[in-house]
Amino acid sequence: MQERDYPSTLDKLINYGNCREMDGKNWPNYPEELGITSEFIPELIRLATDETFDEADSDSLEIWAPVHAWRTLGQLHAEEAIEPLLKLFEYRDNDWMVDELPIVYSMIGPKAIPALSDYLANVENEMFARTSAMDCLEKIAQVHPEHYSECVNILTQQLEKFNENDIELNAFLVSALVNLKAVESASTIERALMSECVEEFISGDWEDVQIELGLKSEREVPRKTFNFIPTSEIDKQKKGMASMLGMPLEKSPRRPANLKAKAKRKQAQKSRKKNRKKK
């Protein structure tokens, strides 16, 4: 075990347990159970972003320490963690991050919106990292409905740059707005889709979007020959999706089975390969 200089109060957190064996929807109340107060926020931020835990034995409990730390920061509504946790978006292959940071940021609250908005808009950030910021904004809109319009406006304004964005980023933006049932963004979505600047392999076409937004009851034109999987279907058929994507149902202890994110990544990767062949 690597020696790390953390306060003794965090020792129980570092060795708290295997997240895969816990209820992922109902996190332990770490502050109450372990007596962790806001004075430990700086150390919790350091722990949540400590890359040395990636080197821990995969069977050890300490490999889960960053996950427990970012959950605790969410429960403490730690606004100080807003900027530092952004660096975790770079770990796009870590499904625990993809799955849980939107929840963490929604717990921290709407104060995170400006930083997430800036991260999404920054073209120097990697595309999939930007989609993580987008996921967090989507979650904040769902948990804090009084900020729904603010988050939808940010996503819509980013989509309005469809001629400048990656086509995959445009597709994920469309998907986020559809998830939020943002009917008010329909005209922007339509213009982006009609411009052929959206990877429909990920988002679906304009008729798919209209149906998901409740603007249309059924298709009038046969769908193009691409394997689009509506978000609603991904949610409903997780077990089937795992089989279709060739994913084992029993995941590595480092990652949970975030099938929606995995499916969308798989779609984006296929899209990029397809576009490279055209060049």
TrEMBL record:
GO terms for molecular function: lyase activity. Residues 261-279 have a biased composition (Basic residues). InterPro entries: ARM-like, ARM-type_fold. Keywords: Antenna complex, Lyase, Phycobilisome. The keyword Lyase applies. Residues 237-279 are annotated as: Disordered. The keyword Ribonucleoprotein does not apply. This is PBS lyase.
